[in-house]
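hey so u asked for the seq, here:
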Amino acid sequence: MTGFSPDWLALREPLDAAARAIELTWAFGRALPARPGLIDLGAGTGSNLRFLATRIGRGTQDWTLVEHDPVLIARAPVEIARWAKGRGKRIATEGAGLRLIGDTVTLGMVIRDLDLVARLETLGLTAFDGVTASALFDLVSQDWLDRFVAALAQAGLPPLLAALTVDGRVSLTPGDPDDAAVLDRFHAHMRRDKGFGPALGPAAPVALHRTLQAAGYRVWSARSDWLAGPEHADAQRHLLEGWAGAAATADPAIAERARGWLDRRRAQVADGGLTLRVGHADILALR
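ran it, structure tokens below
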């Protein structure tokens, strides 16, 4: 649906981990029972599990990772096993999933192949103690969001942690005269259909906060901005190329300007002279 590559997800994972609003992570953990069942939507290769597992303060956890991209479904067990082995966990096969056994945290994990558009209402959210997603809600439409929050309400408003939702704030240091032209078109492109209907894009944090509150949740938001410096050169290049390509697609009249902008920015990356800040929000919703 969204077409994110495993290589890009690996590049962004350190930026994600450094950015997240840890106080909301802890509050999410405190809202969970002793052995929570957790569902992660749009799970990719499992980065959200890898971040949360050792930070929510629960010694035994059972995770269901929901994904529909066959490449990511195949890659997730490999990446999670690599992460677990690096932390000294034993790995056992358990039915269709894995059990990761460590000194302080034991995890059960299964991957569920499910289309979140066509089969959203079949998630069975009543079976879970907490719901989480990372970098998902800027891709969805308001109609899809309404359906999702209705499903949460039907399930009794379980705790929700929505991490790393783009909010439209971008700054590049040093600046360039064409920054605004490229970024404005990029943000317009973000609102195109990503498979869920016309995407909320940078309006997503406000829309999510409002929709959750209307359903009866108490909602907290905190910034979770990426800060990508010279040590993140590969991620910088990926972002810049994506922004320039999206801008040219959204407005072919500026394609040449976007190429020139990208050439200048690539040179700055090569010289180690560029810093990017990309605004995101983490949102916690509790009953």
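The CA atoms of residues 177 and 261 lie 9 Å apart. The chain has nine helices and ten strands.
lmk if thats what u needed
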